[in-house]
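Weekly sync, protein design subgroup
Attendees: M.S., D.O., the rotation student, P.L. (late)

Item 1: inverse folding check
M.S. brought a backbone from last month's batch and wanted to see whether the design step gives back something sensible before we order anything. D.O. pointed out we never logged the input encoding, so this time it goes straight into the notes. Structure tokens as presented (329 positions):
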């Protein structure tokens, strides 16, 4: 009799546990399939600089329909958005703040009438939140920079992720986004300069150009990794050109100083341009040649092909220290 009661109690507890687990089944599936948004890695989370506006400012920035969807968590009608099935290539950015979110290569036709993607871009650009509205349990997708509602993610997508990011088309803009990477001494001041440039959508401070995988700040400072402190810039080519970014690069540091910048000495503070395409290399070489002046020390800036970029620790992102970097020439 005692054994029967214990068995019954065990079965009741087991059923209760399964019930509670079932209530959170969908989020668990999505978290397992897309682990980068639940990562415990100690860097990359601070790459996204938050934007906070008042309700009045959001209403001024967005159309009434965009405001309803993105700030009031509404849903557009299927097949109604201009970008639900575009054939153009590029990067889909948040319509509210311009943060790059999805590459066009991850887009697929889900047959739902809403733009659908298999994966978001890396760097914690979207935030996943539990949504229990309308009597359902779903995973809401929110822009990590401005907290605008984008849509939902479901575990019924195609390989390789098995996910379907079902987005509101009105919440996205298709842009021609390009990457540029620069090393010009301490990355705090360099990042601040590019952050303030119109047309720049996102920046990240980090390490590149070396041979050590996923280095820490302390390792880079020991001058044994070969890495430089650098800033990766994502920019909208329709609003700012690569040439304009190069012009800014030359202005914010001394490209003639060997072995560092100002009081910051060492190979990790070197001047270097990391190019992402043959076109960028050609333009960078021409820009460097134009900086040479008779009677002045030669430009020591290296121009190399961009390799793996490792984001720096969170406390280095968007630091904006006035004590870092040289004054503009």
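Designed sequence read out in the meeting:
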């Amino acid at each position: 009799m005692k054994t029967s009661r214990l068995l019954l109690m065990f079965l009741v507890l087991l059923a209760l546990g399964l019930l509670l687990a079932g209530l959170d089944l969908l989020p668990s599936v999505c978290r397992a399939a897309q682990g980068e948004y639940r990562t415990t890695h100690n860097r990359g989370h601070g790459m996204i600089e938050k934007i906070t506006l008042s309700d009045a400012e959001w209403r001024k920035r967005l159309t009434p329909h965009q405001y309803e969807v993105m700030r009031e968590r509404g849903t557009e009608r299927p097949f109604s958005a201009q970008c639900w099935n575009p054939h153009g290539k590029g990067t889909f950015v948040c319509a509210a703040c311009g943060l790059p979110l999805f590459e066009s290569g991850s887009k697929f036709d889900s047959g739902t009438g809403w733009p659908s993607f298999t994966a978001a871009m890396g760097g914690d650009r979207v935030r996943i939140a539990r949504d229990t509205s309308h009597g359902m349990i779903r995973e809401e997708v929110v822009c990590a920079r401005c907290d605008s509602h984008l849509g939902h993610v479901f575990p019924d997508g195609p390989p390789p992720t098995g996910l379907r990011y079902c987005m509101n088309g009105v919440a996205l803009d298709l842009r021609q986004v390009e990457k540029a990477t620069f090393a010009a001494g301490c990355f705090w001041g360099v990042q601040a300069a590019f952050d303030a440039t119109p047309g720049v959508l996102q920046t990240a401070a980090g390490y590149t150009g070396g041979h050590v995988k996923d280095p820490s700040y302390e390792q880079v400072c020991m001058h044994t990794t070969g890495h430089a402190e650098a800033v990766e810039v994502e920019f909208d080519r329709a609003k700012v050109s690569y040439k304009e970014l190069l012009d800014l690069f030359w202005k914010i540091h001394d490209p003639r100083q060997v072995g560092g910048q100002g009081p910051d000495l060492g190979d990790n503070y070197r001047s270097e341009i990391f190019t992402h395409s043959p076109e960028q290399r050609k333009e960078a070489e021409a820009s460097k040649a134009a900086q040479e002046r008779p009677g002045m020390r030669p430009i020591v800036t290296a121009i190399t092909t961009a390799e793996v970029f490792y984001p720096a620790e969170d406390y280095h992102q968007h630091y904006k220290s006035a004590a870092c970097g040289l004054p503009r020439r």
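Discussion: Helices lie at 2-23, 25-33, 55-61, 64-70, 187-195, 217-221, 242-251, 278-291. The first helix runs from residue 2 to 23.
Action: P.L. to compare against the previous round before Friday.
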